[in-house]
Amino acid sequence: MNKVFIAISILFLFTSCQKQSKEKEVENEDISAHWSYDGETGPEHWAELEGQTNCDGNFQSPINLVNFKVAENLQPIDLHYSKETILHDVANNGHSIQYDFEAGDFLIHESDTFHLKQFHFHEPAEHLIEGVRYPLEIHLVHQNDSKEFVVLSVMAKEGKNSEPFELLESYLPIKKGETKLIKKPFDISQNLPQHKGYFSYEGSLTTPPCSEEVTWIVFKEAIEVSLEQVELLKYLMPINNYRDEQPHHGRVVRSTSF
Predict the structure, then answer these.
(1) Which of 34, 45, 80, 95 is catalytic?
(2) What is the pLDDT of residue 29?
(3) 19-24-26-28 Cα dihedral, nearest 10 degrees
(4) What does UniProt give as the signal peptide span (predicted)?
C-alpha cells in the first residue's frame, strides 16, 4: 500500500512540475514577444499590446522636421561631458544595441540637470529632416530627478570611417539578450557633430511605453561613419528598427539661428 502511495505521489509531483515548466515557458514567450517592429506586434499595434502607454497620444515621436521656426532665444546646448565618464556595459535588448553609462555626464536644460543614462541606435533614422531620412540615428537619453527626458538625436551618414565607432564596435558582435561589461571611460562628445545647431520640439519616447513630456534636440549636422560600420549595426539589430513619423498635431518645431 505504501509503495502505491509513493508511486502516486511521485507521479503527481512530476505532472505538477511539467505544468509549471510549460506555464513558465509561455510566460517567457509572452515577455519576449512584448512588442517589435514588424507584424502583429509592430508599431501600429503598440497601443493595443501595452497596458499603460501613450503610444496613441497626440504628441508622439518621431516627426518630420519641417516648417520650423527660427527662434533667436535658443541657446547652445549646455553640455557637461567628461572624458572620464565610465561606459558601463553594452546590451542587445532585441530592439537595438544599447550602451549604458555610469553617473557623470549631464546637460542643463531650462535650469534643470538631466543625466545621460544610455545611447542606442535606429537603422534607418526615425526623424526626418525636411523629408530626408538618414541611414542611422543615435539617441542619447538624458533624465532628470522628476523622470522627465531630454533626448539628443545625432544623424549619421555614410562617409569616412569613425574612430569612436570603431571603439564602440570593438565590443560587438553581441547576441540578442546578451550584456557585456565594459567599465571603461568613454568621451561621448566624440560622437557629436562639430556644428551644434539643432531643432527642438516636444514629443515622446519612440518605443513603448511612448512616454510624452520628452524634449527632443535634433542636431542639424550629421556625423560620418563608414558603410561597413553601418552594415555591422544593421546586421546585429532588428531590420528597420524605426517607428514611422507621427502627426505634428499643431506642435511647433524650433530651430537655432546658428
Answers:
(1) 95
(2) 32
(3) -170
(4) none
